[in-house]
Amino acid sequence: MRGLSLNQITTKGWTLPEAVRGCAEAGIEGIGLWRDKVAETGVARAAKLCRDAGLTVSSLCRGGFLTAATPEGRRAALADNLQAIEEAAELGTDTLVLVVGGLPEGSRDLPGARAAVADLLGELAPHAGDFGVRLAIEPLHPMFCADRAVVSTLGQALDLAEPFPASQVGVVVDSYHVWWDPQLAQQIARAGERIAAYQLCDWTLPLPADALLGRGHVGDGHIDFRALDAMVAAAGYTGWIEVEIFNQQIWDTPGAETLRTLIERHRAHVAAL
Amino acid sequence: MRGLSLNQITTKGWTLPEAVRGCAEAGIEGIGLWRDKVAETGVARAAKLCRDAGLTVSSLCRGGFLTAATPEGRRAALADNLQAIEEAAELGTDTLVLVVGGLPEGSRDLPGARAAVADLLGELAPHAGDFGVRLAIEPLHPMFCADRAVVSTLGQALDLAEPFPASQVGVVVDSYHVWWDPQLAQQIARAGERIAAYQLCDWTLPLPADALLGRGHVGDGHIDFRALDAMVAAAGYTGWIEVEIFNQQIWDTPGAETLRTLIERHRAHVAAL
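The joint structure predicted for all components is written out below.
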């Protein structure tokens, strides 16, 4: 399955070694890793497992959470992101996904939180460049603006990325987060070489009790993946297509079965190979 | 309480006569009516009740649902909206709020649904003008894009309104739906005299099981109302400030108590009169 990468959260029940083995057995050649899973296995061992299995690490999820209102909070965020950059480099991926963080506790200062993100990006970007890693700003769906990411649109992510070389700061196009955006076609075209990661899952309804987990397999919801794929391809993106799904029912499904569904849906709705 | 209007959904348990009496007793001088409540009471009687109580009808909620994919669906939507325009005129309000509708059943064609909205607006706007009623396009939060409103941002609503005279087509600024928008300040400034209605409630977390009902009293959530109010005032808006809250707990509270809270929060967070 050229192009398809398993974002590891999709098989949340699997350890990193299990996910690596699962991909190898299914013929999936890319994997997006999560830092908590990497930490369980150890960075060096995780890197070796992927290399030995012939897997490309398409991204590391995730750095970010840059909106702290206090100097201590800022320092902690910087330290954590510097470590994430080094982990990404050691894992052999050039892409560190950033979920930028929501409003600080008790704050209603959205412009202030957004300015804090821009500030810390300025400190992180040169370090990322030194390690050959690109910071990939992920706009999250506006329903996560208060608690998870004050970057809500692709246009806003591109505005934040613009002061930096494209080799240091890019953006994530995640179907779930951006599909509704009236400016989607124009902002994807604008993004061009800034597209650092491309992630897919579907928008399904109703939203579950935990709104974070309302994502479905490609084809189960309301998103037109062929149209999105045409936009991303026209922008010049030739990288991995990660499937990243937060969904309790899918997490309760055996991983090998989930991977079979991923491949089947990839053929049917994205890239008919 | 100059400026404050009760959107009737906030006291969902009240009939229209009860809501009119409640406003009069609380000293609230504006009311936003809902068509189902108006139908229970009868349009002529509802109009008379409001007039006799000295209440201004700040808006009628709601027309819209313009995304039908079939000719029959389009005809039915047109007929219903023409009736809503006449009801608004008879109730003495110049503002008909439009919730434009989501994707047609089984469709993933978001650009198509958006084009259908533009088409039907073109048919409705002159009729609205004939009755002295303005169609107020309400951008809904992007989490309602699939099932309720394919118009998701103020900028998009203004693009849709632009071909028409401002006296025929305007927009709604509803804090809950637009607060997250990185382009908010710039689009409110652009809106100027297109702002036909201004509605308030707060963004509270976590989202409830029914995502429609996650709205809170002004001051209970994450929105900076003074900042929003300054933008809307700077755009030249001098009309009513409707409080419109969908929240089961508030609906279960006695109406008179809810109105006391509205007034208290209006003083504390919006207009300190």
